[in-house]
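does this look right to u?? adenosine-5'-diphosphate version
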Amino acid sequence: MGGDGNGAPASVESTNVAPTTGASSPSLDVDYMSYVSHELSAPLTAMRWSTALLQSAKMTKPLDPDQLKLADEIMVGVNRMSLLVDDIHESSWLERGKFADQPSPISLADVIANVQAKQQAAIDGKKLVFTVTIDPTLPPLTVRPSTITLVVQNLLSNAVKYTPAGGSVTVQVRIPTEAEAAKLGKPAAGCVLLSLADTGMGIPADQQQLVFSRFFRASNVREQDLEGTGLGLYIVSLGVKSMGGAIWFQSVEQQGSTFYVLLPLKNAADEVH
Ligand code: ADP
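got this back:
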C-alpha cells in the first residue's frame, strides 16, 4: 500500500505531531476543555440513566411506540455527546501530561484480547476475519496500562469501523527490523512493533497529512455519515508520544490501511521521574 499515491508509504511520526491549527483543528484551551468535559460527564450520565429507564419496560406506564422512538433518539444523541466528551477529556489529560497510573510491565497480548472482547459484537456483526499474531519471544513492555489501552482501543475500533462486512483485520506484535527501530534511534532488541492492518475504506491520499490532527475526518468517512469524533488518532498520537514511541501508517483508498506503532520496551523519560 503506498500512502502518498506514488508508491511511497505515508510516514507520520508522532514526534512530529505539533499543536494543530486550521479549519479541521481549531485552537482550543486545554484547561478550559478539560473543565468543560469534566463538568459535562455527570449530567450526561444522569441523562443516559433516565433515558434508559424511559426505554425500559420497568416504567409504571411504559411509553407508547411514538414516545419510545423519541427516547431512542435522545439516547443516540446522549451517546454521541458522551463519546465526544470522553475523547476531549482523554486528549486534554494527555496534552497536559496527566496520567491516572504508573508505567508497569504489561502483556500486549492481554491488552489486545481485552480490547478485542469489547469489539467482538461489531467484529461478528460484520463477519470480519480477525487475526492476532504475537511473537511469544517478546520481552515485557513497560508502559502505563491506561495509555497503551487507549492506543490499541482507538486503532482497533477504527480498523473495525472503517472495514466493510466480510473484510479482514490483522493485528501483529513483533520485534521490529533494525530499519524500523532506527526511527527511534534504538536497536531492534529494545523495541516492539504493533501493527493493525485492515482491508477497509482507506484514507484519501490528499488528506493523509491531516490524519493525526484534532477533529480530522476524511471526506470518504463524512460522506457515509459514520459515527466518530475525529479525536481518536489525535489521542493515539499523544499516547504514543508519551510512551517515547513513533506512529506511522500506509493507506490506499478502497483497499485498506495499516497503522504501525513502534515503542521502546522502556521509555527513558519515565526512568527520570
Ligand atoms: P474518528 O472518530 O472519526 O474515527 P479518528 O481520529 O480515530 O476519528 O480518525 C480520524 C479519521 O482518520 C477518521 O475519521 C477516518 O477518516 C480516518 N481513519 C482512521 N483510521 C482509519 C482506518 N483504519 N481506515 C480508514 N480510515 C481511517
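Residues 154, 158-159, 162, 198, 200-203, 211, 216-218, 221, 228-234, 257 surround adenosine-5'-diphosphate (CB under 6 Å). idk if thats expected tbh
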